[in-house]
Amino acid sequence: MTQETITTDVVIIGAGPVGLFAVFELGLLDLKCHLVDILDKPGGQCAELYPEKPIYDIPGLPVVSGQELTERLMEQAAPFNPEYHYNEMVEELRKNEDGSFHLKTDGGLTFHAKAVVIAAGGGSFQPKKPPIPGIEAYEGKSVFYSVKRMEDFRGKNILISGGGDSALDWTINLEPIANSMQLIHRRDGFRAAPDSVNKMHALVEEQKMKFHLGQITELHGDNGQLTGVSVKGNDGEIFQVECDTLLPFFGLTMKLGPIANWGINLNENLIPVDTEKFVTDAEGIYAIGDINTYPGKLKLILSGFHEAALMAQAAKRYIDPEAKVTFQYTTSSTSLQKKLGVA
Amino acid sequence: MHIVLVDGHGAEHKLEALEGWRVMEIIRDHGYPIVAECGGACACGTCQVEVDPNWAAKLHEPREDELDMLDENYGGEWSRLSCQILMSEELDGLRVRLAPISVKEAA
Ligand SMILES: Cc1cc2nc3c(=O)[nH]c(=O)nc-3n(C[C@H](O)[C@H](O)[C@H](O)COP(=O)(O)OP(=O)(O)OC[C@H]3O[C@@H](n4cnc5c(N)ncnc54)[C@H](O)[C@@H]3O)c2cc1C
Ligand code: FES
Predict the structure, then answer these.
(1) DSSP reduced 3-state for A279
(2) Cα–Cα distance list, A300 to A13, A104, A160, A183, A266 (Å)
(3) What is the pLDDT of residue A2?
């Protein structure tokens, strides 16, 4: 499938709090942004790791939850009509001869941008793998950490492991098309919408699926094709569960990912930058937020916001060296207020 | 007051502990390579330890969010999050083993 290349001023890699605020700062300077994130939603760590936990050190917001902060940042960025591309991981980043950039995602999206902002935080969120010996041999053949196409699972004997929303949602969604469905979890408590938990229990009642308590200790099969698993029950007894497909859902963790392949200088998985422009060792590629490092760096949202403001000035000069960048306040500048749609 | 840490290689270390400190902080501040990615917010599960069964009963029951994190990180029967254990007189001598996922990979 070939899609048309998307042309824009700036591509921001990562829609965490810092990437979101960068839209605002770049927008004030008339730069249009596209954001790409491997998550299915904005907010980065705030949305994925602690949506309900309170944050106390955002200036002017004595207490705000990770989710609420994300929503406010989206609202603040909205006047600049940023475009969001979720469930996409930026895999390739190349500089063209004219100083512009080419980017490509794992889903096949391609971008042509005048500047690139890496706001990748702790790296891309990827599924956690359960520590079951030899699981690698089955990955991609009969063990999957995500469902890309439901049809691939039609007629399968599926075992899902985990107790979060993904585990419950996929149990419910795949049950009608699977030949058999089983769920395994280490306790009878779930970190999922109560409605999903009720639906799952109802399916068990109707004998449309089985629910096991315990943990998988061993996989059985040949050449990557699973035939069953050994489970240690909560009474310590080992029992066997037959299945040909295993879907473990144990949440997400951050891995640096493809950034290591872009030829950018890294130091212990962080990108060194200067504190004037927040530019990497490649002109036109900037790094802000948790992903960067410089003397005195603090991994705080607050610091990322400051970095976004200074980076935007530098990116503007890179993209349009002739432009006169004048310093203005949003409070008093009619031109800025027009951009924000309030004047 | 102290705790006993069994590291990734099975070696034992007696660590000075302070009342009210999280066991995760005690391990980290003594320079052991504990991941503890989220800094004690009960949001990552990478401070997981196995508590010596003789000590397990002395700990408070895990809260729901601790159980969720243990679920996500393949916790076993004696697993707890060390960031959710606060040091107290009662726990003087507590023995914990660092879980493999909590050990930082050498950079
Ligand atoms: C439990 C917890 C509590 C915290 N409390 C506070 C607090 O009270 N105050 C505070 O200031 N900070 C706090 N922090 C830290 C704060 O969350 C981070 O500093 C902040 O999220 C960094 O924002 P960011 O935008 O740089 O990166 P992130 O939030 O990490 O977002 C980066 C995004 O980039 C995406 N990404 C990375 N690589 C790619 C790629 N190649 N392709 C596509 N997408 C990619 C990731 O999937 C991710 O969504 C806390 C963190 C945790 C875990
Ligand atoms: S440090 Fe993250 S859960 Fe304990």
Answers:
(1) strand
(2) 18, 29, 36, 39, 20
(3) 60
Question: Is residue B12 assigned to a domain?
Answer: yes
CATH 3.50.50.60 domain range(s) in chain A: 6-126+253-340, 129-250
Do B74 and A189 make contact, defined as CB atoms within 8 angstroms?
no
CATH number of domain containing B17: 3.10.20.30
The mean pLDDT value for A306-313 works out to 98
Mean pLDDT of chain A, nearest integer = 95
Domain span at residue B31? 2-100
Distance CA A240, CA A247 (A): 17
For A6-126+253-340, which CATH superfamily applies? FAD/NAD(P)-binding domain (3.50.50.60)
**Which chain A residues touch B107 with a CB distance below 8 Å?**
268-269
Fold for domain A129-250? FAD/NAD(P)-binding domain (3.50.50)
What confidence tens digit (pLDDT) does each residue in B15-26 have?
999 999 999 999
pLDDT score of A320 more than 80: yes
Q: Quote ipTM for the complex.
A: 0.83
pLDDT at position B7 is: 87
Q: A35 - beta bridge partners? A: A12, A84
Instruction: Output the average pLDDT for chain B.
Output: 93
Domain total of chain B? 1
Test A250 with B107 for CB contact under 8 angstroms: no
CA–CA dist B33, B24 (Å, integer)? 11
C-beta of residue B86 within 8 angstroms of C-beta of residue B21: yes
Cross-chain residue pair A251–B72, CB shorter than 8 Å: yes
pLDDT at A50: 87
Among B70, B72, B103, most A C-beta atoms within 10 A, so best to mutate, is B72
Q: What tokens appear for B40 in the block?
A: 């004690």
User: Tokens standing for B61?
Assistant: 């029951």
Please check whether residue B13 is in contact with residue B4, taking contact to mean a CB–CB distance below 8 angstroms.
yes
